Amino acid sequence: MITKNIFMLLLLAMVNSVSYAASQKSELAEDYKAINNINNKASLQRGAKYFVNYCSGCHSLKYMRMSTLAEDLNIEEAVFSQNLLFSNKKIGETMTISMSESDAIMWFNAVPPDLSLIARSKGADYIYQKLNTYYEDDSSPTGFNNIALPNTSMPNILAGLQGGQKLLLDDKNKPVSFVKISEGTHSDIEYKQLTNDITNFLVYVSEPAKLRRYSMGFWVLMFIFIFTVIAYYTKKEFWKDVH
User: Fold this and answer.
1) What is the structure's pLDDT at 48?
2) Alpha-carbon separation of residue 61 from 5, 74, 141, 204 (angstroms)
């Protein structure tokens, strides 16, 4: 009986903690919505640049081949190799990282996940929310915490761009807003555009074939329209003498 009561108390505590984390996200992080358009090649190109410069040191895109990326984003291979390849990798390889799992565990206490399918598994809004809702937290080992993923072990790699912000709580200890405490190199609008570009890029990476389907879809619809017109007038000609 005692064991059962202890189990129920532990279960209740877990439910409460999950509910609190969910309320944190729903009340504040949900204000951040990504604007996705994978047909915006300029946004995808910027997102690729930002990802390589700020994210690829820890996070791989093991299902994304760099030659495919260059072709889809209309980046010449020479330009891609010069600006987006910082190791001895070849452009025909996938976007893996050199950091070993043992080093990752020693530095971050966890292995940074591959982000090839993050947009499909978590959604674009989750990525955008996480990149925008970091706040300074002295109790965290990294000095930062996050509303979209509370107690994250990932440091705020974009802090220098965004600037510092603190989390404001209400009298019930629930998050209500952020307050800026230091300026970054980017304005709020510029930073949100940057994080939206990264999000847009990861949406593309999660399903590169979608970009080609979109471009092919226009011609398919044009074919159907033209075929329908031809079929209509053909039917009209064949049946004109039938009453």
Assistant:
1) 95
2) 46, 19, 27, 12
Q: Describe the crossing of helices 41-50 and 188-206 by its angle, rounded to 10 degrees.
A: 100
Q: Read off the pLDDT of residues 180-204 as tens digits, 9 standing for 90 and up.
A: 999 999 999 999 999 999 999 999 9
Give the global pTM: 0.77
Query: 12 or 178: which carries more pLDDT confidence?
Result: 178
Domain boundaries, the chain: 24-207
Contacts of residue 94, Cβ cutoff 8 Å, sequence gap at least 6: 60, 61, 62, 63, 64, 65, 66
Give the C-alpha separation, 140 to 142, whole Å.
Answer: 5
With 0-12 CB in 10 A as exposed, 13-18 as middle and 19+ as buried, what is 71? Answer: middle
Q: Are 68 and 79 in contact (CB under 8 A)?
A: no
CATH class of 24-207: mainly alpha
29 sits in the region (left: phi over 0; alpha: psi -120 to 50; else beta) called alpha
Q: Tokens for 176?
A: 């209500």
Rounded CA-CA distance 238/53 in Å is 64
